[in-house]
Write a structure and sequence with these properties.
By secondary structure, the protein is of the alpha/beta class. It is built from ten helices and ten strands. A seven-stranded mixed β-sheet has the order 3-2-1-4-5-10-6, with helices on both faces. Strands 7-9-8 form a three-stranded antiparallel β-sheet. The structure holds benzoic acid.
């Protein structure tokens, strides 16, 4: 995700639903006092701060320096590190991740790194976009880019697996899966769909001249409006979540 630029301030303003929804994943984590917990793709650290209230020691990693800085400003420890290049030796009781794993397309390298970072029987608890996530949005973006060749090629930077596929991957990387579920979670976008696109489709629009960016935002919004907008609810994105709780039962060599 090197071409994705993150702006922690804008993220906190227009994407606070990410951590609001993430609270149920941190409940599944059930952090305990004095546990060492790695927050993989920690973002601005809002959930890490909540987890730390249990008395656990939370350490964040994120590929974005802007996000790491935002987490450090909360007085929490974090460093810039790509999820597919984790370097921790069996030091964590748990690895937690919310709304981040879908950006890490080298998922096998991620799972190897998580396995190595965990102590024996350590848990891996996470939620991210699963099969079918943002289908309407992705289809619309692809169509708009295809209709406007000057926008370049559409690149899909996300990994949205099915529960079966991801369970197999977890098992192949030394984990026992205690629970895994794929579910639709329609997500209200209080700041509207164009604000969502500016943050999450930044890899497509960064580098476009302003007029072309404006066309991309307007035409994508027009295409998804019949599916994602209603006068009663406003904009609601078609999110699908994959949530799981796994345990390290074998160390990878
Ligand atoms: C998400 O499912 O959280 C998501 C996926 C792709 C882009 C933005 C958000």
């Amino acid at each position: 995700m090197s071409s994705q630029q993150w702006n922690a301030k804008q993220y906190q303003q227009d994407a606070n639903f990410v951590s609001d929804f993430g609270r149920s994943v941190s409940d599944l984590l059930n952090p305990q006092a004095n546990e060492a917990i790695l927050d993989l793709g920690c973002g601005t650290g809002e959930l890490a701060e909540q987890i730390a209230q249990s008395g656990a020691q939370v350490y964040g990693v994120d590929a974005s320096a802007s996000m790491v800085q935002a987490m450090q400003q909360r007085g929490l420890q974090a460093e810039v590190m790509s999820g597919d290049a984790l370097t921790f030796p069996a030091s964590f009781d748990a690895v937690f991740s919310n709304a981040a794993l879908h950006w890490m397309t080298d998922y096998q390298a991620v799972l190897r790194g998580v396995n190595k970072a965990l102590k024996p029987n350590g848990r891996f608890v996470a939620e991210f976009g699963g099969a079918g996530n943002i289908q309407a949005l992705t289809t619309a973006m692809k169509e708009v880019v295809a209709a406007n060749p000057e926008m370049g090629d559409f690149r899909n930077p996300w990994y949205f697996p099915t529960a079966e596929e991801y369970q197999k991957q977890l098992e192949a990387h030394g984990f026992k899966v205690h629970s895994i579920e794929l579910f639709a979670r329609p997500t209200p976008l209080k700041s509207g769909v164009e604000a969502w696109l500016k943050i999450f489709a930044n890899h497509i629009i960064s580098g476009m001249p302003p007029a072309l960016e404006e066309t991309f935002l307007r035409e994508t919004a027009q295409r998804v409006e019949p599916q994602l907008y209603s006068a009663e609810q406003g904009w609601v994105a078609d999110y699908v979540r994959l949530r799981f709780h796994a345990e390290k039962v074998a160390a990878l060599t």
